[in-house]
Amino acid sequence: MEIYKQIFESLPEALLVVDPDGRIIQLNPPAERMFGYDREELPGQMIEILVPHLLGKHLSDLFSQLAEKGVWPVDAGPELFGRRKDSSEFPVDITLNEMQVEGATQLLCAVRDITEQKHADEKFRGLLESAPDAMVIVNDQGRVVLSNSQTEKVFGYSAAELVGQPLEMLIPERLRSPRHGQHYFMNSHALPPGSKQELFGLHKDGTEFPVEISQSPLGTAEGTLYSTAIRDITERKVAERRVAESLAEKEVLLREIHHRVKNNLAVISSLFYLQSTYTEDDATIKIMQECMDRVRSMALVHETLYESENLAAVDFAQYALSLSKQLVTTYSLPGANVHLKADMEPVTMNLDVAVPCALILNEVMTNTLKHAYPPGHNSGHGAGAGGEVRLALRREHDGACVLEVSDKGVGLPADLDFDSTNSLGLRLIRSLTRQIDANFVLRSTHPGTQARLTLRLEGYADSR
């Protein structure tokens, strides 16, 4: 018996022993400190002096319940408060245990001061209520144990209506089955911590609305709970739809602009052609033809953009090959058969770079086709067979883009000075090269000629 008394005295928890009438028999030192009484002051006093309104029941009424349960935690009803000797009160949790001492029935009351817990709960509740989203706390069965006022605003359910209910009641029934692939909270681990999922919420009145849900685990004395944040994203979805519709409208408009520019340039090209029919002067006809080619090369850029998924950038490899084939068809000399050999890497250029490059390519290809293989030139393909023109587009290791046109023809005139010649075509090339901050080199290769344009595409996408 002495050993049990020592244990009773040494336990850190506040303990009270009372008889069936609720009179205090003894208490341990922690109970003295908790309530502020000396040990001699409490024996014989009713327990209500320390814990008023013990659920409104006389302790003798509890023994019948203890006979069935063995242990009776007094934490499921209204809040209990302990009262100190100085009349100050503090929140408590009480656990009651029936025991037999020398044939007499007694009640062991374990009292725990939960002031700090209450403060923590109040802070947590404050944080919960300050959240801009609907916040729902669920247990590991996915049932609601707590919710904030924002939840009622979003879903129309009061906190009392939600407690104990499965969280899935807040989403449409069609999304609750695993076979739909969008179910949420078929179990408490359906959504990985920190991730977000978009689906639909179900209002109390049966209306559906888009929501975004995220979940985080909370370690508590009652086990792991799950904090679920539910955000009504109706306004965001409306804004996204408006943006998508606006972008679609702008895409249609941009395609129409490219289409109209191409058509207008085609009209200009046709005007040059019609004008050329009113003269028999070969020099004038030549100028008109060259102008037609320049306009057509720009029109082809807009045609390529019109047919492209990316309305702001040109697949220049595809464009350069298409333009070069057109020029070969236009400028092939009678009896000559010029072969175009292409080695093209995919390179994407924005419109403000693609158009100058297109005009430069037009000038280079036109000059090559007109002058590289004159009649009677022996190219190694047989008499009068013409020759080969190589077109290359590649990206260098340093990121530079290189456009190159070369041939095995007669080469450049010995007295040609690219930097000083007044030829309109070469002057145009020099001007366009400066415009896109590029470098252009024209040189003889013995046999033949090589024209190389080198530029950097910082800020422009490379499709490789």
Annotated CATH architecture of the largest domain:
2-Layer Sandwich
Helix percent reads 25-40%
| Poorly predicted ranges | 70-77, 179-189, 460-464
Sheet of most strands: 6 strands, antiparallel
Number of helices: 11
- In CATH, the homologous superfamily of the largest domain goes by the name Histidine kinase-like ATPase, C-terminal domain
| Secondary-structure element order, N to C | HEEHHEEEEHEEHHEEEHHEHEEHEEHEE
Number of domains: 4
Instruction: Return the CATH topology of the largest domain.
Output: Heat Shock Protein 90
Q: How many strands? A: 18
Assess the beta-strand content as a share of residues: 25-35%
The span between the termini is 87 Å
The value of Rg in angstroms is 45 Å
Name of the CATH first level of the largest domain: Alpha Beta
Structural class: alpha+beta
Mean pLDDT: 79
Q: What would you say about this model in short?
A:
With 464 residues, the chain is an alpha+beta fold.
Descriptive notes:
This protein has 4 domains: 2-113, Beta-Lactamase, CATH 3.30.450; 131-232, PAS domain (Beta-Lactamase, 2-Layer Sandwich), CATH 3.30.450.20; 235-302, no CATH class; 312-464, Histidine kinase-like ATPase, C-terminal domain (Heat Shock Protein 90), CATH 3.30.565.10. It is rod-shaped and about 135 Å long. The protein is an alpha+beta fold and 464 residues long. The protein has 11 helices and 18 strands.
